[in-house]
Amino acid sequence: MHMTDVAVDISNVTKMYGSFTALKDVSLAIQDNEFFTLLGPSGCGKTTLLRTIAGFEDITKGAIRLYGDNIADLPPNKRPVNTVFQQYALFPHMNVTDNVKFGLLRLGQDDATASARVGEVLELVQLTQFADRLPSQLSGGQQQRVALARALAPNPKVLLLDEPLSALDLKLRQAVRLELQQIQHETGITFIFVTHDQEEALTMSDRIAVIADGRLQQVGSAREIYEAPSNKFVADFIGETNLIDVTVIDVSNGNATCTLPSGATFTCPAADGAQKGAGHLSVRPERVAMTKPAKSLLQGKASRQIYLGTDMHVEVTLDDQEVVTVRVQNSETTHIPSIGETVGLNFEAGAARLLVD
Amino acid sequence: MAGALTTSKASNNSTYAGLGNLLMLPSWLVIGFFLVLPVGMMLIYSFLTKEFRGGIIWEFSLAAYDQFFFDRGLFGDDPARIEWTYIKIFWRSIWQAGVATFFCLLIGFPTAWFIATRTGNSRSIWLFLITIPYWVNLLIRTISMKFLIRDTGPLNEFLISTGIISDPIHIINTNFAVQLGLFYSYLPFMVLPIYASVERYNFALSEAAADLYASRITTLRQIILPTVKPGIIAGCILVFVPSLGAFLAPDLLGGAKTFMIGSLIEEQFKGNAGNWPFGAAVSMILLSMVLIVLTYYARQQSKSGER
């Protein structure tokens, strides 16, 4: 199959619970062999979207196509997708082998074929020596890998992962991230991964869909979403950013010219739909530089220092009381202004972006 | 983690050091007074000689057990043959209790499932409704059951008035009446333990099974039933064991043809016609049977726990 094939095509999906709208007119095309992440705060509808693909939730309106076939009306056991559940949902009375074999037997495979496949996937997730253990005799990380093996065993066209790392501790989570990515590359299965952890999303995904309030906010690569957020929510949710109040005086060719709080005029790229009038300029803390006040775009007083280990955050309060955070490296050579010191702030046109609300 | 556990255990030990036996005393008193003492008395009585007007003579005898298993003719000097009368009563009791347990399971499981899948408040209301009849004395409930199902009772009159049947269905004084009575008496003992295990059931497991291509019936057989099995077994034991020794339902609803162990034992201690050692012996035989069943299940449980 080619990269251009659409694995899951979600078109105009709406999901209502009574009068509550969980998903509002969501359209998404997830490519074959893609590591695709649904990212959003809790309660945003990302898990609901995943569950509609798995078949655990009916959709109110729209269509879900899997390689061209509409699966929206099929029950979960008729959909060729498998799920890794958030709390793993391993069958407690079955050992690892039987858990992994369960789906294969339901597909009508004979015991020998199924057993051979179980051996393969257990090797893939490095659990061969735990084949006879019950889930309760495994650590959290091992249980997570059994859940992964069980979902991979039937060789699904699409693998759905519902926050599978959220129950693991930090170190383990970081290791499993790499492992998951590697398994996705090795198997070539399309992964749809749900998370609320933006770092997880940024490091693992080919593409990310940011969801909030049941609506799709932006779809793009990690770099696109981080560097060119389409709206204020995305900029604020992914990483940290400064949102500076500005007045837009002109918008042309995707660029906006605006007046900064200091009175300086500044031109930078603008998100689609930017208009004249009040607006927000998004600048990441690490893209702001501190200089002498005379040659700067903005001026203010250093009001707080936050120690972060490798880095430091310096909060600078502007004359109009807005606070801009600057991230500087924590080293001997960096000048870190003391509290109350007057500093100037500068940033490149490419580092800033005018956002719509 | 393990280290932390050990330390807390150690500190517990030092706090209550030496008090262990003293703290166990109330439990031992209760068990001793209400369990060991009466059962021990029964055990001793079963090996004593009967006094003809009820009561016992302190003289060792195996007559009670002999009477249960062997028929030595009217004067006791014929060659011993196996006595089938009491074995038949035992067999009938097991059958009746088994059928009652089966019906309790058949109705109790869906009921428990239904209640456990309700949301908070309506769940408590359903549980409350299930227990309401049990605020009334068992004797009164059994008598009202007798009234309900007799030939001219409300059940038959209703069925005749709606034209479903033309002659009353004869239920009273049949095996079925006894099974119905036992079923009615012990249904909550089936519902409550199953409810408790279904309530703990993680419904994500059903979703996982469906996700792995299992039909609903396969999910029920291979995932749900094995997971809630402890509740089902507990429910079955709680219904089967008291049903086996029940005497109110067979007495009031069954009549002479449906005589069960409970009634047999009851008769031995009633009035002047009784035979205390024989009653005690029958009780001991019943107790050993129940213990064998319970031990078997306990073994199974601990085996599946170790696995």
Main CATH class of one domain in chain B: Mainly Alpha
Rg for CA atoms of chain A:
24 Å
Helix content of chain A: 10-25%
Strand order of the largest sheet of chain A: 6-7-8-3-9-10
Find the CATH topology of the largest domain in chain A. Answer: Rossmann fold
Summarize model confidence as the mean pLDDT of chain A.
92
What summary fits the major beta sheet of chain A? 6 strands, mixed
Provide the CATH architecture of one domain in chain B: Orthogonal Bundle
State the CATH topology of one domain in chain B: MetI-like fold
Strand order of the largest sheet of chain B: 1-2
Q: State the end-to-end CA separation of chain B.
A: 23 Å
Q: Give the overall silhouette of chain B.
A: globular
> What kind of assembly state do the chains in view correspond to?
heterodimer
- What is the overall silhouette of chain A? elongated
Number of strands of chain A: 20
CATH architecture of the largest domain in chain A: 3-Layer(aba) Sandwich
Number of helices of chain A: 8
Q: Could you state the CATH homologous superfamily of the largest domain in chain A?
A: P-loop containing nucleotide triphosphate hydrolases
**Which spans of chain B of ≥5 residues are poorly predicted at pLDDT below 50?**
1-11
Which H/E pattern describes the elements of chain B? HHEEHEEHHHHHHHHHH
